[in-house]
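Hi V.,

Quick status before I head out on leave. The structure for the redesign project is tokenized and pasted below; the design run finished overnight.
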């Protein structure tokens, strides 16, 4: 029931029955059934490999995309290609979930899409990308310059998030010192204290 779908009539009846208060009906809608299926697959972990294509389709569902990404993560390395596809998903929550989980697994193939996400218009998406990129110190030569560019972003909170990510690169972040010093001089308390 991973791809359960209620008919329009069933949706209407469920909606009407939920509004009345005299008799309690217990109906399970499509989301509840998909959620139960995802929980079952999560419990199976790597043994759920055969369901990867079906789970990957749920990445496009606003209500299940993030949980589907988590289930793919639990399946393990065989689900990495599906999780990588989640980085280009049109649903920001799914993108952010996939990014965080790929960073947790230190999946180096995610770095190009994470670098692209730094330029996203959504604050949370680009902040997630900055945080996750700090998990890849071995690719500092690519990541540090991109994070340095983020220090010029118009959003002061995002600039602070980029500065925090840069700190994780230790000595590899030395080229960012002049920009960080400028941030310390900022009149924005949040930015100056983060850079310091």
């Amino acid at each position: 029931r991973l791809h359960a779908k209620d008919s329009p009539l069933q949706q209407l009846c469920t909606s009407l029955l939920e509004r009345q208060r005299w008799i309690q009906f217990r109906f399970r809608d499509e989301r509840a059934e998909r959620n139960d299926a995802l929980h079952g697959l999560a419990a199976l972990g790597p043994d759920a490999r055969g369901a990867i294509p079906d789970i990957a389709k749920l990445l496009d569902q606003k209500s299940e995309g993030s949980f589907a990404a988590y289930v793919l993560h639990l399946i393990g390395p065989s689900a990495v290609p599906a999780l990588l596809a989640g980085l280009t998903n049109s649903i920001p929550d799914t993108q952010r979930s996939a990014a965080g989980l790929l960073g947790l697994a230190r999946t180096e193939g995610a770095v190009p899409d994470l670098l692209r996400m730094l330029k996203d218009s959504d604050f949370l998406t680009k902040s997630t990308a900055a945080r996750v990129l700090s998990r890849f110190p071995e690719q500092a030569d690519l990541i540090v310059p991109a994070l340095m560019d983020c220090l010029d972003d118009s959003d002061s909170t995002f600039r602070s998030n980029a500065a925090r990510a840069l700190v994780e690169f230790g000595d590899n972040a030395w080229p960012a010192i002049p920009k960080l010093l400028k941030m310390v001089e900022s009149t924005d308390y949040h930015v100056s204290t983060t850079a310091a």
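Above is the designed sequence. The chain has twelve helices and no strands.

G. will cover questions while I'm gone.

Best,
W.
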